[in-house]
Design brief:
Layout (H helix, E strand, L loop, with lengths): L6 H11 L2 H16 L2 E2 L7 H5 L7 E5 L24 H14 L10 H4 L3 E5 L4 E2 L11 H15 L4 E5 L1 H6 L9 E5 L4 H4 L9 H11 L8
Parallel strand pairs: 2-3, 2-5, 5-6
Antiparallel strand pairs: 1-4
Length: 221
């Protein structure tokens, strides 16, 4: 089966693409995209892997679902296309970076610049039907992204995993904490952040300190 994903990941995930669940998932996604409006656009479904190759990946940020509004999703968790209003969770991420690192809040919510530095912005589910949050959950994407996390954990060393909120923390069970840094906090959504579970976690400076300690270039957040 041909999957339009970066060759470095295709090599790691080749066996996964031949499994029955993934073939069924592919048929489901094809049907959804032909019969409904879905996001992100087809060419962006594996965008996270195209920007952050397997060898380059040094930070993983786990999201849940792509944005389901018009023009928002671009295949990277928490990221939106240029010119799109910055969603509340991403606003809170930028506020924490400003507080943690003293960096100005950017005008765009497009996080490609992070992804190009080796930040894998991975949603647990890679597609969604327009205006229907969670509509493509439990169709096989979660099994696929669990496998992605397992492969990173087993085959790489000194990767930073940023797990925000209960859903992301559950997926963290697949990570070997003896060889990677796992940072957890509440979700940056207003509901969680305004209750004191997000701000002040200093995940961005902690991630960079760990990368530098292990001989890796820090991220320009």
């Amino acid at each position: 089966m041909k999957v339009a994903i970066h060759p470095s990941w295709k090599k790691e995930l080749a066996d996964e693409f031949e499994k029955d669940y993934f073939k069924n998932l592919t048929e489901f996604v094809k049907a959804e995209y032909s019969e409904n409006t879905c996001y992100p656009k087809g060419s962006d479904i594996f965008s996270a892997f195209d920007h952050s190759t397997f060898s380059n990946t040094k930070v993983v940020i786990l999201g849940q679902d792509p944005y389901h509004g018009v023009g928002q999703a671009n295949g990277l968790s928490f990221s939106v296309n240029d010119g799109i209003q910055i969603p509340p969770s991403l606003q809170n991420i930028f506020k924490e970076i400003a507080e943690d690192l003293g960096k100005p809040v950017p005008n765009s919510g497009n996080l490609e610049r992070w992804a190009n530095q080796g930040v894998l912005l991975l949603n647990a589910t890679l597609t969604v039907r327009a205006h229907q949050a969670g509509s493509h959950q439990k169709k096989g994407w979660e099994q696929f992204t669990d496998r992605v996390i397992e492969i990173i954990s087993s085959e790489k060393e000194n990767v930073v995993f940023l797990l925000w909120g209960g859903y992301a923390k559950k997926k963290g069970a697949k990570i070997d904490s003896s060889k990677h840094l796992i940072l957890t906090s509440g979700h940056p959504s207003p509901l969680s952040a305004n209750r004191g579970y997000w701000f002040g976690n200093k995940h961005f400076s902690k991630a960079n300190e760990y990368l530098k300690e292990n001989g890796k270039e820090p991220i320009d957040w």
